[in-house]
Write a structure and sequence with these properties.
Length: 136
């Protein structure tokens, strides 16, 4: 291949080295965001209450548990915002105000609710408890 100037190269011709990312992102030359219809197995597992399979699917598609969770403004120590996790301890970031410039980090442990500086309450639970409590 004749080496062209980077500005003349097409999207498909650029290598992963030019972007410093892993090459597996370059399959099919684009990154597509998955939608829930791509995971019919997840819907079936939730309906059948097979929580081992649900946690396996969630961990495979979000192994670092970095997805955002919208929190309720009406929460208390008795009804905290539930954070599902496979581990017994986890760091959670709270953006206390929409205009906030920083994130307040909290360390959650399963069982005990923790209050952020802004007043929001969080509790770490396993996936089975999370689906049971949110589907009532």
């Amino acid at each position: 291949m004749n080496r062209k100037d980077k500005t003349e190269m097409t999207f498909n011709e650029r290598s992963a080295r030019d972007y410093k990312i892993a090459p597996f992102f370059w399959l099919n030359s684009y990154i597509r965001t998955p939608i829930i219809s791509d995971f019919p197995l997840l819907r079936e597992a939730v309906n059948a209450q097979n929580f081992d399979l649900v946690s396996k699917i969630v961990v495979e598609h979000d192994p670092f548990e970095v997805k955002r969770i919208r929190i309720s403004s009406e929460n208390s120590e008795l009804s905290p915002n539930l954070i599902p996790s496979q581990s017994h301890r986890r760091m959670v970031g709270c953006i206390c105000e929409p205009e906030a410039d920083s994130i307040n980090w909290l360390e959650l442990e399963k069982g005990n609710p923790v209050q952020c500086y802004c007043g929001h309450w969080f509790q770490l639970v396993n996936y089975e408890d999370y689906f049971n409590m949110t589907n009532q």
